[in-house]
Sequence to fold (281 residues):
Amino acid sequence: MPESKYNQQDLSFIDLIIEKLDSHYGGEFVLRHILSELTYNIHEHAFDNEKTDASLSFKIFDNEGILELAIMDNGISIPGRFDKANVDYIDDCNAIEKAINNFSTVSDNPYERGNGLWTTIRLVIEGNVGEILIISRKGLLHISRGGYKYELLDNEEYFKGTLISIRLNKFEVQNIYDLIELHKTNFYEYEVINDY
Amino acid sequence: MIIDVSVEIGKSLELNSSATDLINKINVINGIDFILDFSEVYFISRTFAQAYYASKKRSPKNITEINLSDDVKPMMKMVEKQLMF
Fold:
């Protein structure tokens, strides 16, 4: 392994992961941003008791120029967090929609709310033409540059916790700060379809 | 008083709790004017920057930042600007 550019004693968890990734996939800032914001979300929202676990995995498909990164926890889930905060939502897909649109269970101040999911989506989809899959309890959202899809996982073995899987292409994101500005538009509107 | 941020909370600043911890420490130190030296800090997340400016706004101290690197300054400026509105 190449020698670390950081003093080993000062390395954070994110530093240790970044050293193993190829920063050509998105760029070092984007990778740091994704890892820090999504692990922050787990730290802040997912842990509900001592038995909660979280994991991070990645794989590089160098011949195809793709990096896949997945962060997963078996914690309270996004809808579960809303249940705990007595926040109304239609179903687990709507809960994901609220979460990516800056709806917070922590603060009413818009500038204190987390923007991690939203900024991650913008960097990956608009900045890198990548893909994101979010599964939280029964809700699923898949986003690519070609469009997005919500799906309710209607089965007994629903996923406990939250999984976020990201696919990045092998080029660095430009105009980073334009992409992580606060927004007011909901680009991923969820429409409830009733089958009669 | 000058405070080396990297010594207090690290060089890669990711969590909002790091920001609030830093400002909370300053709030209980005697004195009004504090200069935070970011020279060894090489990354701040948006989450950290938001929490930093929100906590700084509530602090009774006068806090300024110096030696923000080219990797750190744009994020701090963007979030500070948004908190003004």
Observations:
- The mean pLDDT of chain A is 83.
- The helical segments of chain A are 13-20, 28-46, 78-84, 92-100, 116-128, 176-179.
- The two ends of chain A are 59 Å apart (CA to CA).
